[in-house]
Amino acid sequence: MKIVTWNVNSLKVRLPQVLEWLADNPDVTALCLQETKMEDVVFPKADIEAAGFHVVFAGQKTYNGVAIIARAALSDVVINIPGFIDHQVRLIAATMQGVRLVCAYIPNGQALDSEKYPYKLSWLAALTAFLKKEMVVYSKLALLGDYNIAPHDMDVHDPKKWEGQVLVSGPERAAFQALLDLGLTDSYRLFDQPEKTFSWWDYRGFGFRKNAGMRIDHILLTKELVPLCSACVIDKEPRRNERPSDHTPVIASLLI
DNA sequence: ATGGCATGTCGAACATGA
């Protein structure tokens, strides 16, 4: 199976691109979306099911919102982090063919002196506590999403320019490490990768053309899944579309 | 140092993203 994360930055705008991409990638089993930016009542469930997919989703107006589109059945759906009071819809989890898929849109944080920054860190702490419990139940678990964290300087086009800023700050990277310390592994770094490979590029200033990007979208795997992972790639093609999302899909292949 | 582009909001300037 292939499992994918893609921040689409509005599913209303990007639905045709999502369906086209799925048609072009028939071996993709599950696609986790972030920033759908729509309430459940207007979610295009019928369109997605008509195209032959299963789908689970949770959203809100204007901001956030997550969904999982899959070619196989999805069960045991959880929306948001249990016990963590949150007015924003940023997480959905479901089980597909024995694999627990956790789709997360981790807060951006805006800036280190913003009130959104401590929210980001508390959200990450709650996520880590939630996953610790999930991993007891589900040995085959993948955490897919927009983490809004570039784990290492090699994941940043210009580390000096970004030094100390949001997405790369020490506490954020420590929170990423805390996820790894649960026993999770960054599937992208299981394999040799080209230098300067990113999953997001700023719309402004020809960011994509200049490859001024960041690798902030990740797929972490439990120990049970690591030996089954045969590849992890970033698909830059959709970034060349007309009206692209600023993020591109990250794809992990699993021998399941 | 700032804004640059894109999206969504009840109808234009603003909030947010990363």
Architecture overview:
The protein has a single domain (2-254), classed as 4-Layer Sandwich (Deoxyribonuclease I, Chain A). The protein is of the alpha+beta class. The termini are close together. The model has no long low-confidence stretch (mean pLDDT 97). 23% of the residues lie in helices and 27% in strands. The strands form 3 sheets. Strands 3-4-2-1-14-13 form a 6-stranded mixed β-sheet. A 6-stranded mixed β-sheet has the order 5-6-7-8-12-9, with no helix packed on it. The chain has a two-stranded antiparallel sheet with strand order 10-11. Helix 3 packs parallel to helix 5. The protein is built from 5 helices and 14 strands. It is globular. It has helices spanning 11-24, 45-50, 116-137, 159-162, 170-181, and strands at residues 2-7, 28-34, 54-58, 66-70, 75-79, 91-96, 99-105, 141-146, 185-186, 200-201, 213-214, 217-221, 229-234, 250-254. It binds one DNA strand of 18 nucleotides through loops. Mg(2+) binds at residues 7, 35, 146, 148, 246-247. The record marks 217 as: Important for catalytic activity. Keywords: Hydrolase, Magnesium, Manganese, Metal-binding.
